[in-house]
Design goal:
This protein has five helices and ten strands; from the N terminus they run H-E-H-E-E-H-H-E-E-E-E-E-E-E-H. The protein is of the alpha+beta class and 191 residues long. The strands form three sheets. A six-stranded antiparallel β-sheet has the order 4-9-5-6-7-8. A hairpin with a 4-residue loop joins strand 5 and strand 6.
Length: 191
C-alpha cells in the first residue's frame, strides 16, 4: 500500500486513455452524476483561474474556495475552510485507496485539493499562482470521500466504457488529465 507521502513523476504519453476513451472524449464524457468523476470534470473547468486569498468564485479561488465551489455546483454543501472540509464525508485510510474526486487535506488543515489519481491533485496552491494540477506535497492530514467514486458511462461518440475503482484505473485518470493539460499548453508542477 502506498504511504500518504508517496511521490511519483509521470511521463507525458499522448497515447493514454481513460477506460478506453481518449482524453478529449473523457473531458466531454457522461460520468456518473454526483460522483468523484464529476468533481474532477467540473474542477477542470477552473484550471488557470487565479489564486485569490479568500476567493470563492471563478474570478479567483483559494484552495478551500475552489473545493467548496465545485461541490456546491453539484448540490453538495461542505464547510468553507480547509480544516473543516477535513471532517466531512468518509475518511479514506491511505492514498492507495483514494479515488478521483476525493478531498486531500494537507499541512495541519492549511491546504486542500481534489485528488485526480497518481499522486496528483487539482488545487489553488498559493498567492501569485493559479488553479492547476500538481503532485501532492507536504503532510497529508486526511483524505475524505464526500461523493461516491463513480465511472465514465459513455463518451460523446457513443463509446461505452466503465471505470473500475482500481489503482491502475485511477492512475490512468491522473495521466489522462495531465496529458489534457499538456495538449492545452499547460503543465503540471511538482511542488
Amino acid at each position: 500500500a502506498a504511504a500518504h507521502g508517496e511521490r511519483r513523476r509521470h511521463p507525458a504519453d499522448g497515447s493514454l486513455t481513460i477506460g478506453g476513451l481518449s482524453v478529449s472524449e473523457f473531458k466531454n464524457a457522461q460520468v456518473t452524476p454526483g460522483s468523484g468523476m464529476e468533481v474532477v470534470q467540473r474542477a477542470m473547468k477552473y484550471l488557470g483561474t487565479p489564486y485569490v486569498w479568500g476567493g470563492t468564485t471563478p474570478s479567483g479561488f483559494d484552495c478551500s474556495g475552489l473545493t467548496k465551489y465545485v461541490m456546491n455546483e453539484m448540490g453538495v454543501e461542505i464547510p468553507r475552510l480547509a480544516a473543516d472540509q477535513g471532517t466531512v464525508g468518509t475518511e479514506i485510510p491511505s492514498l492507495a485507496e483514494a479515488r478521483p474526486g476525493d478531498l486531500i487535506v494537507l499541512n495541519n488543515g492549511a491546504h486542500v485539493g481534489i485528488y485526480i489519481g497518481e499522486n496528483q491533485m487539482l488545487h489553488a496552491p498559493r498567492p501569485g499562482d493559479q488553479v492547476k494540477i500538481g503532485t501532492i506535497y507536504g503532510s497529508i492530514d486526511t483524505i475524505r470521500r464526500v461523493v461516491p467514486a463513480g465511472q465514465v458511462l459513455t463518451s460523446n461518440t457513443g463509446n461505452t466504457a466503465a471505470l473500475t475503482s482500481t489503482s491502475a484505473t485511477d492512475a490512468a485518470v491522473g495521466r489522462a488529465v495531465l496529458n489534457a493539460l499538456a495538449s492545452s499548453g499547460q503543465s503540471a508542477s511538482t511542488l
